[in-house]
Amino acid sequence: MSCEHPGQGASAPPAADLDRPTAVRRGDVLEETLASIFAVDYPEYEIIFCIEDAADPIAPLVRGLIAEHPGIPARLLVGADRVGVNPKLNNVVKGWKAARHPWIVMADSNVLMPPDYLERLISRWRPESGIVCSPPIGSRPENFAAHIECAFLNTYQARWQYAGECIGFGFAQGKTMLYRRDVIEAGGGIEALGAENRGGRGLD
């Protein structure tokens, strides 16, 4: 997230991995959101779907999407690495380790990605960056609680996050997170995020 529009460099965009922790959750419109990743307009990227259990009902949908898009490198990984108390992090660690490119995006399964998703994220990176994230916009609420969540995300939270960023107070929000592998490895690796969740030292 940034309050400025950076200039576009002349070099080719770097290759990236899109790492999506995936599971069936009530109320998620997963077929549309998971399919949106295959419509991302970017020169070189690989998709890594992560599930904990091979019997998860979402697995056939993911395999079907992969089969429908043979021209886009995509894999489904199964299993969990217990690096902390955060189940999403435990699910996605295998994707991080399997990623082939230096730029890695972790994005929740219910994020609907626009075609310029990767381009916009990577364009926001600065030499001093450690992570780039994007505040979510809530849409299509299906019940009263969801309406409240959307109202919070789209008004109060969005305003304060954007205002904080503009005055130099960065933040990290887990819906969409862009990392550069060497930065995370220098801070102790993906496992250090698990240590932070357990109340340990975490990343520097």
SSE layout:
Elements: E1 16-21, H1 30-35, E2 45-51, H2 58-68, E3 74-78, H3 87-98, E4 103-107, H4 117-123, E5 132-133, H5 144-166, E6 176-180, H6 181-186, H7 190-197
Parallel strand pairs: 1-2, 1-4, 2-3
Antiparallel strand pairs: 4-6, 5-6
Helix pairs in contact: 3-7
Description:
- With 204 residues, the chain is an alpha/beta fold.
- The protein has helices at 30-35, 58-68, 87-98, 117-123, 144-166, 181-186, 190-197, and strands spanning 16-21, 45-51, 74-78, 103-107, 132-133, 176-180.
- The two termini are 20 Å apart.
- The model is unreliable at 1-10 and 200-204 (pLDDT under 50).
State the separation between the terminal residues, measured CA to CA. Answer: 20 Å
Overall structural class, as computed from helix and strand content, comes to alpha/beta
Instruction: Count the DSSP helices.
Output: 7
| SSE sequence, one letter per element | EHEHEHEHEHEHH
Keywords:
disordered N terminus; disordered C terminus; 7 helices; 6 strands; six-stranded mixed β-sheet; alpha/beta; 204 residues
Brief synopsis:
With 204 residues, the chain is of the alpha/beta class. Helices cover 36% and strands 15% of the residues. α3 (87-98) packs antiparallel against α7.
